[in-house]
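User: Quick sanity check before I run a bigger batch. Here is a single chain. Can you write out its predicted 3D structure?
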Amino acid sequence: MNGMEEDPPNSWLSRLFKNKKKSALLEQRLSREAYEEYERLLMRARPERDGSRLRVRLAEGVVELEDGTLRVRARNRKTAEKILRNLHHYDQPPSIWPAYGLSYSLKRKKGTIL
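Assistant: Done. Predicted structure follows.
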């Protein structure tokens, strides 16, 4: 027996699938006052509007505000938590937003993957 047969977790196939991380979703229920505050903050980022839903697309994730619920989607939990922690920086001038991973909502063109 060689080493590859004895230790299948180290095979190239298992490493390929092991490196795949699940995306993270953080969801928070908001009071009416908190909802209005987040709505005011997110409007500064020129969000996409879909009915009552506001969506801000960032390079590292997506922030959605809808019916008293705030959702942050990102590639991993650490990034989603960072986005959530930094949302209050939308109160600051837009020139400092990139330092906190924030920006104006990124527009996606059909057929383009960002």
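Residues 47 and 56 are 5 Å apart (CA to CA).

User: Great, the batch can go ahead then.
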